[in-house]
């Protein structure tokens, strides 16, 4: 486990975080709200170039990260994880989406635009259309 970032108002317990150690991810960004006997939230995990997610909603009979699995919620793109987080009912899920956009998508867009300008890619070039659609 390399890096864990909490963007919610509540932290996961040490026991909950030990549940995900077996996944050997590079990055975990999560938002969580503990309501006492229940809770809600969303976690995004990055391992290599793959992303996956985990809903953190739960009741008193299980924890937010019980039975977490890389294969169950594997997605192919960061955009899909962001879309899932934005569509989730909890505010902390939207905070995860915002963090991912600011720290991954926006930086990639800046790099793409700078490369297009640096190498004088004309707007008529098909590559420019791809770059512009990302910005």
CATH class: Alpha Beta
Task: Tell me the CATH topology.
Answer: Double Stranded RNA Binding Domain
Give the uncertain stretches in residue-range form.
none
Helix content: 40-55%
How many helices? The count is 4
Taking strands numbered 1, 2, ... along the chain, how are they ordered across the largest sheet?
1-2-3-4-5
How many distinct domains?
Answer: 1
Integer average pLDDT: 78
What's the number of extended β-strand segments?
Answer: 5
C-alpha-based Rg, rounded: 17 Å
> What does the largest sheet look like?
5 strands, mixed
Assess the beta-strand content as a share of residues.
15-25%
Query: How would the global form be characterised?
Result: elongated
Label the CATH architecture: 2-Layer Sandwich
State the end-to-end distance.
Answer: 32 Å
Helix-strand pattern: EHEEEEHHH
Backbone structural class:
alpha+beta
């Amino acid at each position: 486990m390399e890096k864990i970032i909490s963007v919610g108002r509540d932290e996961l317990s040490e026991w909950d975080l030990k549940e995900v150690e077996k996944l050997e991810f590079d990055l975990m960004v999560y938002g969580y709200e503990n309501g006492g006997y229940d809770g809600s939230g969303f976690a995004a995990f990055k391992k290599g170039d793959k992303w996956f997610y985990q809903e953190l909603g739960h009741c008193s009979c299980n924890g937010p990260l019980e039975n977490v699995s890389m294969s169950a919620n594997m997605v192919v793109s960061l955009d899909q994880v962001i879309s899932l987080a934005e569509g989730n009912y909890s505010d902390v899920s939207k905070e995860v989406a915002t963090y991912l956009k600011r720290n991954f998508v926006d930086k990639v867009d800046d790099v793409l635009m700078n490369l297009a300008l640096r190498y004088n890619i004309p707007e008529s070039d098909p590559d420019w259309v791809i770059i512009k659609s990302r910005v």
